[in-house]
Amino acid sequence: MKTLFIGAGSMAHALLSGAINAQVLKKEDVYVTNRSNQQRLTELIGHFGVNGVSSRLPSEELDVIILAMKPKDFHEAAPAIKSFLSPGTLIISVLAGISINHISETLSFNGAIARAMPNTSAALGKSATAVTYNEFLSEQNKEWTLKFFRSVGLSVEVPEEQMDLITAVSGSGPAYIYYVAELLEKAAVDLGMQQELAKALIIQTISGASKMLEASGKEAGILRRNVTSPGGTTEAGITVLEESGVSEAFSKCVDAAKARSEEMGKELTFNHVK
Predict the structure, then answer these.
(1) 3-state DSSP call for residue 187?
(2) Quick one: CATH architecture of 171-261?
(3) Is domain 3-163 given the CATH code 3.40.50.720 in the classification?
(4) Alpha-helical segments (H) within 22-159
(5) Do 171-261 and 3-163 have the same topology in CATH?
(6) What is the pTM assigned to this prediction?
(7) How far apart are CA 16 and CA 10, in angstroms?
(8) Where are the domains of the chain?
(9) pLDDT class of 8 with cuts at 50, 70, 90
């Protein structure tokens, strides 16, 4: 599949790494362009052995174009994107907040478009990626798109109306877990533990809990109750979290992130229409 990445940031790096290592893409069939940071583009080309658009373009039509720039740069890049399109091109967008319909209208493209929301754990092959499509994707293109994102972790197909919520849950989710780790480490250090020891214990604790969730197949609530003995230390800690409104805070957190994803899409669309 002759594939052009538009954007050379961390997500492009993660996707390239996974897809090339999994042999979903061949490096000689990959082209990368980046509007502003030529040093970053040069580094990406050198690291993966792929082609820079400035060096050469494929003589035949591109099979796939992956939109991996910052969402705010999409409209400025649109004229250049149009020049790469052909009727049989598959567009894959990882741009937060921008709908398939808006991509289609902006690019005047009535063809196959997939929209995906990976997260930064793609860099380690551990992303949780939601994918949605328009009606123009063939079954073969759907299968290839899911395979492409499985090269960097879990990949699931969802309706587009769930994408803003998924952005709030799994797109932003790693930051929530890092925040929990940050707060646990701070609490431990404030109470007298050495920072390096606290960090090592917390990393292993989060990793172990994640693997237990995956391996056991049990609901998180059941696992929590299984380790919360009546009158014990865990119950004492959980009680404080409940009394402090942590459950409500998480609900508000996800709701706020979802609302912001919706707002971003509206802002980008409105500013373009203006």
Answers:
(1) helix
(2) Orthogonal Bundle (1.10)
(3) yes
(4) 38-48, 74-84, 100-107, 139-150
(5) no
(6) 0.85
(7) 10
(8) 3-163, 171-261
(9) confident
Query: Tokens at residue 57, please?
Result: 């373009």
CA–CA dist 264, 74 (Å, integer): 13
Reduced to 3 states, what is the DSSP secondary structure of residue 163? helix
b/e sequence 136-156, b meaning 16+ C-beta within 10 Å: bbeeebbebbbebbbbbbebe
Contact partners, residue 223, CB within 8 Å, separation at least 6: 209, 212, 213, 216
Residue 186 main-chain phi, psi, to 5 deg:
-60, -45
Q: How far apart are CA 163 and CA 51, in angstroms?
A: 32
> Whole-number mean pLDDT of the chain?
91
More confident residue, 189 or 34: 189
Rounded CA-CA distance 138/89 in Å is: 12
Rounded distance, CA 186 to CA 23, Å? 42
CA distance linking residue 32 with residue 2, whole number of Å: 11
In 3D, which of 115, 109, 118 has the Cα closest to residue 142? 115
Note the pLDDT tens digit of each residue in 93-139. Answer: 999 888 999 999 999 999 999 999 998 888 888 999 999 999 999 99
- Check pLDDT > 50 for residue 274: no
Instruction: Estimate the share of the chain in helix, then strand, then coil, as percent rounded to the nearest 5.
Output: 60, 15, 25
Q: Indicate the pLDDT class of residue 54, thresholds 50, 70 and 90.
A: low
The Cα 244–Cα 231 span in angstroms is 19
Dihedral of CA 8/43/119/178: which sign? Answer: negative
d(CA 177, CA 175): 5
